[in-house]
Design brief:
Order of helices and strands: HHHH
Number of helices: 4
Shape: elongated
Radius of gyration: 17 Å
Strand content: under 5%
Helix content: over 70%
Largest sheet: none
Structural class: mainly alpha
Distance between the termini: 25 Å
Length: 133
């Protein structure tokens, strides 16, 4: 395994770990019991995170260099959805004193942004090396 392949495996593993952190956020900052928006946003985050985890694991297991590059597009979309579900698409409750607003929402935005950034790194790190003529 080359150094570039090890780097891609490491970054894909980081994507999976960050997605798991996004899933575990409500254990630290509990969701509101009165708002359905919070639970629906969390369901969206669960779906997007599971896709990111699956694509990251497939990137780790792949033998060709082109597979992580294509899977990085999927993880970037999943990271964007982790940001969009609680922010714009579904949202969380409007009470600024609730843990979902001051805890879950910023963590989900941070995790989604990190996943998008790592996906861009994998996309450029996994490009084909052209033979110099």
């Amino acid at each position: 395994m080359s150094a570039r392949e090890k780097f891609i495996v490491f970054i894909a593993g980081m994507e999976a770990v960050i997605s798991i952190a996004a899933l575990l956020t409500p254990a630290i900052f509990p969701l509101c019991d009165t708002s359905l928006k919070d639970s629906h946003s969390y369901m969206g985050v669960i779906g997007a995170s599971s896709v990111v985890i699956a694509a990251a694991v497939l990137s780790i297991l792949s033998r060709e260099m082109e597979a992580p590059r294509m899977l990085s597009i999927i993880t970037a979309i999943g990271g964007a959805l982790i940001i969009l579900y609680p922010s714009f698409l579904i949202g969380v409750c409007n009470n600024p004193m609730m843990a979902c607003t001051y805890g879950d929402l910023p963590v989900w935005r941070l995790c989604g942004g990190a996943i998008v950034l790592l996906s861009i790194i994998i996309f450029f790190a996994a490009r084909k090396v052209e033979a110099e003529s």
